[in-house]
Amino acid sequence: MLANFSERNRRIVTGIFGGALGRSISLLAPFIVMPIILHMLGAYLFGVWMTVLSFTAMALFMDFGIGNGLLTKLSYANGLNNYSEMRAYIVSAYISLSIIAFILLMIVCFLFYVAKSHLNFFYFENIEALYIVLVSLVVFIFGIPISVIQRIMYAKQQILKFNLWQIFGALISLILCYAAVFFKLNSWLIIVAYSMPPLIILLIATIVFFKQNEEISPQLKYFSKERSLELLHIGSKFLVLSVLTSIALNIDNLIISFKLGSETVTDFAIPAKIASLLGVVVTTLFLPLWSANGEAIAKRDYDWVLKTTKKMMFLGSLVVFFCSIPLILFNKEIINIWMGREFENQQEILFFLCVLSLGMAITSPIQMLLNSLGRVQVQIKIWVIFLVVSVLLKITFIDDFELWVIALISSLAYFLIVIPMLIYSALNIFKEFK
Questions:
Q1: Do 212 and 282 fall into the same domain?
Q2: Which of 177, 205, 224 delimits the end of a domain?
Q3: Cα separation of 277 and 273, whole Å?
Q4: pLDDT digit string (tens) for 143-177?
Q5: What band does 101 get if pLDDT is binned at 50, 70 and 90?
Q6: What is the reported pTM?
Q7: 231 domain-assigned
Q8: Does residue 427 sit in the same domain as residue 338?
Q9: Rounded Cα gap, residues 292 and 296, in angstroms
């Protein structure tokens, strides 16, 4: 038993450091290229791109929660070494997500055809803005089935290997983006050069992974209607949760664009991008818990789950707190070095978004536990309240206050709504395990 605990802890630590390495390098790419992209595109086209990226971040639910449901099912099956179950889930997920991606692609192509003839109706100032929207959406759609490999490798707790592939994709993305700028390609081609390489690398990673893990390699003959329905069942719950969390945490740019115009989005998006570093820290620290919890629960190692959840709530919060200090204290220097100028309310926006990240660090271990157990109903209720309250407050006050009020509302709502309710849910689970 102790050996199992030691091995599981080792995989978590490896996953955290691997995730930190991969995400650090991957994040350098946008931070390096965004200043030159802003210079090449201008405030309007750059704002359009940022708005589309916010939309696609919110639209992660377009996989109908199948990806998250797959991670939960594979983690449990991996704990039991049930390879036939894993193979059936994997091929069923790929087929389902490929169908979804094809349907979405047809819809986007139709809308592009309509919008191309009615630019003013869709509030586009020029055709370049429409092409930026198109390529961003197409890349997102292709990523729906291709990104399944992340869930599979996380379920197998091969997080370090996955992030090494991510690093390679980020480096290729950086090189091709600079090449596109150097040759002065059209704005939408610059976006393609930046966003496509990571997906191509993930496709290569998928081929390599299944050659090394043939026991779970997806083949059409292993497709299971029952497993597909099972993934859709649990996925529908994760779907609702993903919709709520994605919209709640990414809607700010859309609200600002709608109320104040696309140009104003840049003033909020730049400090928000700095604060997103803490979101990456949160994901890096806690995402490995999802698959580790699933494996431990399959083996009924409840004591390990309880101790690890409590420990990570404290340690993770401490890490995020100390990471936020230099971002707040040196925000002017960081943004000046990065973008070459300052933005209105950048310090206040960054401060309150750092507070939000601290709150997410406190609750993320609890959410990983709930995800491992497949219990999402309670999270859905919490996020419905958070979304409704925060959005209504933002729409109400954005006209009367400066942009920092958007970040303030997010952090206050999280601490007053999400944290207390999730802690209460965790206490009930701890009682069940005992």
A1: no
A2: 224
A3: 7
A4: 999 989 988 998 888 888 888 888 888 889 888 98
A5: very high
A6: 0.71
A7: no
A8: yes
A9: 6
